[in-house]
DUF3572 domain-containing protein
Amino acid sequence: MNSSEETAIAILGWLANEPELLGRFLALTGTDPSSLRHAAADPGFLAGVVDFLMGHEPTLLAFCAATGTRPEDVVRAHAVLSGPDNPGDF
């Protein structure tokens, strides 16, 4: 597992402790709680986890404050997981 994947897993773990955000994420992705562990093995899903956080700066900053993660590490994970053909909006 690379550092970008580790960042995405950390985001997912943080979301698990934020019921309102987790519910929103699950609704947007169409994923149910019972399939999260399996989905987390999919790089495309991990890209979606990071993308979810990148889409709302207050949520990004809340994650970073709660976990001690630097925002630029999340940006880097987003770029790596999204790939060169899908750079995202940042």
